[in-house]
């Protein structure tokens, strides 16, 4: 800061202003001259630096971009090598033909695709999986074994290499020249294409197919860039054929589809800032792969746009320089607008050119100019700093000391001394400082005298203010204390009251609303009145006696008493607190009462319920016990104590195993309680024990139920156990089981006897009565032969008799068959076939039998029972089912015979059958007698199914 001088010199003509103006002019001239020299000297150097950096960056890009294509070439060569080695192994062609049959499915149009679900990962019979593999094969002629083997091997290797490169390469596939196309990709080609002929894909139209199989060489080829609409991206296909045979034909073509998006993204962002790239094919036309300004034309031309077709004249020098390019090495090509570094990407037919616009070098030149200008400005800054230092020491610092002294003088807290002023200066500032010092000394003396008077008056005023504040604070605390007391007193749920001890008696001087509600009287009726005046005589006498005890003792009292009040008979717990006066005697009583009527009622009710519970538990014949979570006894009723053989005081607190270590009862309770603690749920188990001391060696059974007891938070605290003696019930069940077994044995014997009797009667009817009827028929026939010619009337009579004899013979046959079908003697299968035939002919219902072709090795009892069960089922169908078809299935398993009779009739609800249905009951009983089961499954409108399981051997313990 440069102030005006004391003589009124204009700021424009001060020494500081002139010095600064001259410094600015000098530095400006130096900066302009240095900038002009820098522009002309460094322009050549900057262009050389740009060229060197551009060459280095381009060669790095060429080698970086060649890496994935070199990897693809190596991968394809490995694929072809492995393909050739595997195909040449002995016996491999036959195995691959088998793989072809497993993997591929032939369509009616002669084409092949992989079998359904293989793409989704469904394994073959040998467990191999080919997820994400898809294939189509449309040969012009039926394939031979060699073609099948090559296509199957191509499928297997495409899956191997495709899955190993997943995430790095887009699609991998090996194509055979017979139009076989297996591919590892995200979409199932068998679902994408709809086959309309044997060559729906038309592989011969694809560039990689035409070029790969159209040459006898085996060099890697790149297709033109094409737009893939499914991925919305540019792609190219890299294909490598195997070595051709002597006829110039190839066996397979290894292909990889490559997405060009990443390459284009990297090409769009060269390492040198401001540069841009061109990527094109070395094909004389300069077919474009990437150029930042013409990608729309490239897309609209389906990748056919080129430098020549778009007439990009400024890039013609690039096409002229292509023949001289070596793979991986860059060279500089000068164009009017750009410096271009270009080179071939190794292992590809592509040329990469990186353009650096010449206009980008102008900022670098301007940067040098800016450096020179900045140096000049820095010089100006140094001169300004030097000048500023001089001004600060000679002008600013002395003035600052005067300003500080003026401020201290105005504040008046410190005395100002001459040493604190710039009085040693010999110029005008020193003279001003000395005059200011004298004035300050006079002002400070007057200020000190005034300060002493002010301090005295302040001390007097402070004492008065302190007294007023203390009085105000005491009043505030008193009001707050009174308000807190009143809030607590009025809002307490317990009755509160204050009694004053007077000559007339104990008089109410304060009470809260809770006391009014308890007494049944209002505040105006109680304040100022004595206890005798407010309570009934008998209640007042009891209360006053307690109050007198408190007054005489001079200590607080706690008492409970019942009072008959207008609100009813109430029980109170009262605390009486004596208040000692200044004379040392009790002057007042503070009373706190609590209505405990409901609690007392609950206690009496609880005591009554406890007595009832104890009477029930102590006298019940059931065992009742309570355990804690460690299976320690908390309680045991007399029945439980009698069972355990120990008194209650011995059991309490002891674990069940500690009470009787060798007892089954103790082990049972220990196990059951532990299980309930784990499950936290009600459990019910049956305990069988032997009580040798009190009940001899008889075994008793108890049905024991364990119930968890929880606290109000749901936590498990104890286990309540109830056990009931069910020995008599178990004995009755055993006797009933034995009785049922005897009845079934009797029924089985009766059924066997009846079947034997039927068999005997049927045989006698057939043998005896049948022979007699046959003899009678022969006799009648002879009678007709002897006398028929002479007596025509006799012939008619004989014919009638012959008819009746035939009817009688048929009746005898029917009776014998009803008693026991003779077909049973030829085996169960023959008998069932006869039964099915008879059923269909008699009822008109179609009946189908499914039975083993081999003879069943069954005893006569089981064969007869199975026949009768099926016969009864068919009878029920004909009577009730209204069915049009019946199916009988007989199956002999390892340990039992399975019979199933089902129909398509109207069905029924098995649960609604009358209890007296003897047919169903007989079927169940017949199956049970042989140790089997009969199951009936039916529903209204859904037909019926009878299923019978008959064991081949009856369990000896079966009842």
TrEMBL record:
Domain Histidine kinase: 764-954
Gene Ontology molecular function: phosphorelay sensor kinase activity; protein dimerization activity
Enzyme Commission no: 2.7.13.3
Keyword list, A-Z: Coiled coil, Kinase, Membrane, Phosphoprotein, Transferase, Transmembrane, Transmembrane helix, Two-component regulatory system
Membrane-spanning residues: 20-41, 369-391
Domain PAS: 481-554, 609-670
Pfam families attached to this UniProt entry: HAMP, HATPase_c, HisKA_3, PAS_4
Gene3D superfamilies named among the record's database cross-references: 1.20.5.1930, 6.10.340.10, Histidine kinase-like ATPase, C-terminal domain (3.30.565.10), PAS domain (3.30.450.20)
Catalysed reactions, as listed in the record: ATP + protein L-histidine = ADP + protein N-phospho-L-histidine
Ranges for domain HAMP: 393-448
Keyword check for Coiled coil: yes
CDD domains reported for this sequence: HAMP, HATPase_UhpB-NarQ-NarX-like, PAS
Compartments, as annotated in UniProt: Membrane
PAC domain: residues covered: 557-608, 683-738
Recorded coiled-coil stretches: 729-756
Superkingdom assignment: Bacteria
Gene Ontology CC terms: membrane
PANTHER family membership: NITRATE/NITRITE SENSOR PROTEIN NARX-RELATED (PTHR24421), OXYGEN SENSOR HISTIDINE KINASE NREB (PTHR24421:SF59)
UniProt protein name: histidine kinase
Organism annotation: Pseudomonas thivervalensis
């Amino acid at each position: 800061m440069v102030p005006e001088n004391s003589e009124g010199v204009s700021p424009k003509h001060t020494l500081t202003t002139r010095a600064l103006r001259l410094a600015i002019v000098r530095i400006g001239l130096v900066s302009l001259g240095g900038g002009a020299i820098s522009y002309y000297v460094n322009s050549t150097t900057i262009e050389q630096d740009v060229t060197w950096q551009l060459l280095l960056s381009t060669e790095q890009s060429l080698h970086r971009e060649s890496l994935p294509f070199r990897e693809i070439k190596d991968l394809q060569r490995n694929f072809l090598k492995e393909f050739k080695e595997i195909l040449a192994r002995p016996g491999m062609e036959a195995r691959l033909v088998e793989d072809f049959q497993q993997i591929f499915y032939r369509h009616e149009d002669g084409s092949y695709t992989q079998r359904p679900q293989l793409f989704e990962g469904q394994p073959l019979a040998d467990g191999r999986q080919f997820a994400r593999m898809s294939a189509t094969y449309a040969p012009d002629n039926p394939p031979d074994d060699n073609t099948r083997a090559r296509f199957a091997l191509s499928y297997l290797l495409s899956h191997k290499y495709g899955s190993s490169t997943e995430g790095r390469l887009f699609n991998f596939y090996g194509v055979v020249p017979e139009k076989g196309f297996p591919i590892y990709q995200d979409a199932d080609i068998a679902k994408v294409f709809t086959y309309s002929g044997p060559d729906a894909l038309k592989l011969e139209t694809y560039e990689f197919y035409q070029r790969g199989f159209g040459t006898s060489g085996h060099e890697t080829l790149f297709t033109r860039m094409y737009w893939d609409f499914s991925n919305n991206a540019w792609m190219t296909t890299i294909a490598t054929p195997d070595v051709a045979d002597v006829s110039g034909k190839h066996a397979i073509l290894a292909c990889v589809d490559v997405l060009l998006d990443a390459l284009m993204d990297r090409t769009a962002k060269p390492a040198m800032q401001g540069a841009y790239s061109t990527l094109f094919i070395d094909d004389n036309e300069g077919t474009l792969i990437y150029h930042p300004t013409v990608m729309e034309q490239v897309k609209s031309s389906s990748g056919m746009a080129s430098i020549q077709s778009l007439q990009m004249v400024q890039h013609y020098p690039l096409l002229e320089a292509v023949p001289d390019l070596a793979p991986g090495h860059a060279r500089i090509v000068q164009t009017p607008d750009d410096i271009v570094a270009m080179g071939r990407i190794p292992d590809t037919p592509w040329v990469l050119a990186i353009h650096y616009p010449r206009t980008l070098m102008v900022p670098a030149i301007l940067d040098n100019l800016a450096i020179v200008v900045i140096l000049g400005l820095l010089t100006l800054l140094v001169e300004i700093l030097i000048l500023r230092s001089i001004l600060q020491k000679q002008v600013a610092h002395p003035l600052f000391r005067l300003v500080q002294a003026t401020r201290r003088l105005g504040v008046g807290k410190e005395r100002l001394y001459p040493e604190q002023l710039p009085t040693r200066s010999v110029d005008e500032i020193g003279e001003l400082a000395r005059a200011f010092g004298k004035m300050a000394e006079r002002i400070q003396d007057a200020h000190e005298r005034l300060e002493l008077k002010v301090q005295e008056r302040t001390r007097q005023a402070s004492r008065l203010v302190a007294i007023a504040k203390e009085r105000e604070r005491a009043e505030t605390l008193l009001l707050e204390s009174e308000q807190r007391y009143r809030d607590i007193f009025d809002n307490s749920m317990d009755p509160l009251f204050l009694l004053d001890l007077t000559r007339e008696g104990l008089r109410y001087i304060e009470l809260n609303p809770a006391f009014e509600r308890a007494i049944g009287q209002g505040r105006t009726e109680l304040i100022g009145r004595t206890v005798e005046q407010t309570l009934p005589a008998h209640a007042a006498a009891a209360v006053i006696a307690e109050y007198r005890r408190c007054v005489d003792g001079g200590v607080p009292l706690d008492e409970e008493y019942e009072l008959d009040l207008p609100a009813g008979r109430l029980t109170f717990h009262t605390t009486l607190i004596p208040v000692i006066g200044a004379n040392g005697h009790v002057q007042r009583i503070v009373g706190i009462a609590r209505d405990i009527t409901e609690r007392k009622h609950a206690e009496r009710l609880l005591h009554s319920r406890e007595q009832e519970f104890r009477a029930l538990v102590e006298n019940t014949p059931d065992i009742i016990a309570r355990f804690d979570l460690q299976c320690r006894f908390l309680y045991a009723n007399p029945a439980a104590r009698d069972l355990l053989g120990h008194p209650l005081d011995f059991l309490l607190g002891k674990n069940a195993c500690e009470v009787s270590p060798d007892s089954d009862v103790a082990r049972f309770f220990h196990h059951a309680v532990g299980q309930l603690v784990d499950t936290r749920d009600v459990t019910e188990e049956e305990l069988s024990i032997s009580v040798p001391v009190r009940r001899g060696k008889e075994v008793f059974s108890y049905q024991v139920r364990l119930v968890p007891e929880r606290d109000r938070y749901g936590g498990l605290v104890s286990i309540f156990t109830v056990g009931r003696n069910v020995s008599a019930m178990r004995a009755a069940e055993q006797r009933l089981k034995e009785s049922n077994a005897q009845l079934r044995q009797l029924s089985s014997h009766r059924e066997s006897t009846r079947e034997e009797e039927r068999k005997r009667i049927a045989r006698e009817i057939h043998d005896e009565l049948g022979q007699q009827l046959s003899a009678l028929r022969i006799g009648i026939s002879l009678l007709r032969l002897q006398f028929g010619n002479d007596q025509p009337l006799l012939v008619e009579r004989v014919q009638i008799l012959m008819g009746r004899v035939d009817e009688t013979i048929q009746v005898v046959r029917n009776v014998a068959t009803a008693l026991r079908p003779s077909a049973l003697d030829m085996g169960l299968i023959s008998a069932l076939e006869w039964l099915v035939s008879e059923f269909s002919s008699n009822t008109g219902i179609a009946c189908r039998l499914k039975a083993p072709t081999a003879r069943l090795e069954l005893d006569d009892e089981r064969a007869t029972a199975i026949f009768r069960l099926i016969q009864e089922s068919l009878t029920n169908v004909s009577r009730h089912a209204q069915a049009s078809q019946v199916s009988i299935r007989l199956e002999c398993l390892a340990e039992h015979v399975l019979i199933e009779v089902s129909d398509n009739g109207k069905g029924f609800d098995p649960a609604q059958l009358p209890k007296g249905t003897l047919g169903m009951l007989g079927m169940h009983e017949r199956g049970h007698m042989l140790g089997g089961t009969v199951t009936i499954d039916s529903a209204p409108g859904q037909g019926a199914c009878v299923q019978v399981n008959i064991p081949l051997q009856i369990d000896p313990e079966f009842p």
